[in-house]
Amino acid sequence: MAQRNASRRGQKKGESFMDYSLLFIVLFLVGFGMVMVFSSSSYEANLRGDATRYLRQQLFASILGLVAMMVVANIPYHFWERFAVPAYIGSVVLILLIIPFGYSSGGATRWLYIGPISLQVAEVAKLGMILFLSSLICTLNKGIRTNKGFMLVLLSPAPVALMLWQITNNLSSAIIVMAIAVLMLFVSCPDYKRFFLLGLITLAVAAAVVFYVVQTAEAHVDDLDFRGARILAWLDPEAYADDTGFQTIQALYAIGSGGVLGKGLGQSMQKRGFLPEAQNDMIFSIICEELGLFGGIAVIVMFLLLIWRLMIIANNAPDLYGALLVVGVMGHIAVQVILNIAVVTNTIPNTGISLPFISYGGSSVMFLLIEIGLTLSVAKGIHLKDL
After folding, report:
1. How far, in Å, are 7, 96, 159, 345, 368 from residue 100 at the CA level?
2. Is residue 11 part of a domain?
3. Domain of 374?
4. Crossing angle between the packed helical segments 171-188 and 320-344, to the nearest 10 degrees
5. pTM (2 decimals)?
6. How many structural domains does the chain have?
7. Between 161 and which of 167, 177, 277, 316 could a Cys-Cys bridge form, CB atoms 3.0 to 4.6 Å apart?
């Protein structure tokens, strides 16, 4: 803490750094997302009497998010240090409130209504973990290199991840919370042996789960839950094309039919009642169908540019706390993009996860924009002479 205070006192007044490249990329992704939300949802929404239903909701959430982003960007980021523990406790409380007050949609109970606004508590928990872990790592300082400190940071988000999994039935968000912790740990304590061992354990557990599901399916297929069924559909989607593999098959049809240049914006066939959740988890397949391989690669390049700008800010942050905030945001976005595209292309089992800034979802876009506001706040602490 003393080192961080000294760092702040030692800064000379100079021109602040504003990352307009990052701002442009984010605004582009949000704008492009609204175009694709309208394109992918208009057919279904029109059947309900209002073709712009999803677009209007996404536009409202995006405007709120942009306002919140600019407010957060103009607040010195050290202001949020005092909210580290409240952020953790608040995340836990919101998840627990799902039990008596949760709102269900699509077979899952993950939302709370705050007035007219629905809030997905997993998005709050992701931001809360970034704030909490950044402060915890700075407090531990060199103690993070010890086994005790390492395990404390690694396991502290585990209760929140477990509750997200069990209470909200949201395994993908639980994975993201733990992935954020691992990435922030890696940046703070690059002990490659520990992370190599951690990776081996994770792969071994994943392989054991797949093996168990396959063996159980051969003996008692009715004993499998829906996640086990998704693993079987991942291994052989055509065998489950009428059930758990249906969404994956339709997404692959959409990607394959798009070719190199696509069918044209708004010309998707799969969104017309064939592909479930076309505007949500599977929106990348609609992008590939309408804009082709070129459009899909262009979206990936934009996310790579976004990650690159976040890395630049993290590397030049005035202190460790600022760097960790940006690393947490970078980890959240990077892991979510990788998981979403991997699910759509059937590289991993279907986990139900949105594409940042592009998929339909008010809570997701709002809290992602707030995280970008945190990043811009850190960037403002950088002086041009240091770049």
Report:
1. 46, 8, 19, 37, 27
2. no
3. 16-386
4. 140
5. 0.91
6. 1
7. 177
Q: In sequence order, what DSSP letters do the residues of 106-159 get, joined into one string?
A: TTEEEEEEETTEEEEHHHHHHHHHHHHHHHHHHHHGGGGGSHHHHHHHHHTTHH
The predicted model gives 77-86 an average pLDDT of 93
> How do residues 121-132 score in pLDDT, each as one tens digit?
999 999 999 999
Q: Is residue 18 a contact partner of residue 376, using CB atoms and an 8 Å limit?
A: yes
Per-residue pLDDT, 103: 82
Residue 29 has pLDDT above 60, yes or no: yes
How many whole angstroms separate alpha carbon 22 and alpha carbon 380? 13
Q: Is residue 10 part of a domain?
A: no
User: Which has more confidence, 53 or 219?
Assistant: 53
Mean pLDDT of the residues in the chain: 88
Residue 220, phi-psi category: left (phi > 0), alpha (psi -120 to 50), beta (remainder): beta
CA distance 274 to 365: 26
Residues 284, 341: contact at Cβ < 8 Å? yes
Neighbours of 247 (CB within 10 A): 24
Tokens representing 14? 């100079």
Residue 9 placed within a domain: no
- The amino acid at residue 215 is Q
Determine the Cα angle at 270 with ends 266 and 276, to 5°.
115
DSSP state of 190: -
Question: With 80 as the cut, is the pLDDT of residue 221 above it?
Answer: no
Q: Tens of pLDDT along 130-147?
A: 999 999 999 998 888 888
CA 211-214-215 angle, 5° bins: 85
Q: Is residue 237 part of a domain?
A: yes
